Write the structure tokens for this entry.
Amino acid sequence: QVQLVESGGGLVQAGDSLRLSCAASGRTFSRYDVAWFRQAPGKEREFVAVSWISGSTYYTDSAKGRFTISRDNAKNTLYLQMNNLKPEDTAVYYCAARVPTTTQYDYWGQGTQVTVSS
């Protein structure tokens, strides 16, 4: 299995940028699809972006054009560059990993808080 630890969250103003990191340990990071999810207060957790082992990426509509997901397999690290942040981006951000042959993300980090003030 793989262990995930997020970092990089914080309090920023609308229009600012943040880069989240997710450090992985355990099994070979490059063998997993890895993704970012977020959960705002009082809302369900939602998908943000995914980096497949193929190298392809996919984003939810609200992240397209503002967020960039990337992975450094040599460093076992996943990133989420977030630009032009909006108050509605306020949430706890989680990274997750799954074996590509499955549909469910089985491995989750503890989350990092992102707060965007207006």
In short: The chain is about 0% helix and 55% strand. The mean pLDDT is 95.
